[in-house]
Write a structure and sequence with these properties.
3-stranded antiparallel beta sheet, about 5% helix, about 90 residues, mainly beta, Ribosomal Protein L9, domain 1, 1 helix
Length: about 90
């Protein structure tokens, strides 16, 4: 079983669950966020949170809609159509 679990919430944030100290979250400059005492947190996906990268519930106020279904990888063994001569 994986130590880190990330759940895509329907039209909501990414919920991250992990034992304390097993995950590091850093900003664009590489500075770590203080996750002391946190075993779970939610990351904003709608772009509207005032507490980015963390979710503050704004998604429910702005009617955020997202695709939640996991997309299956295309079967790479399907033969590709040969190009026609002169094409």
């Amino acid at each position: 079983m994986a130590q880190v679990k990330i759940t895509v919430r329907r039209n909501g944030p990414f919920r991250v669950e992990a034992p304390e100290g097993t995950i590091e979250l850093v900003d664009a400059e590489g500075n770590p966020y203080d996750l002391t005492g946190k075993t779970a947190f939610s990351l904003c996906r709608c772009g509207g949170s005032v507490n980015k990268p963390f979710c503050d519930g704004t998604h429910s106020k702005i009617g955020f809609q997202a695709a939640e279904a996991a997309v299956q990888k295309a079967d790479e063994t399907v033969p590709q159509e040969e190009p026609k001569p002169g094409a």
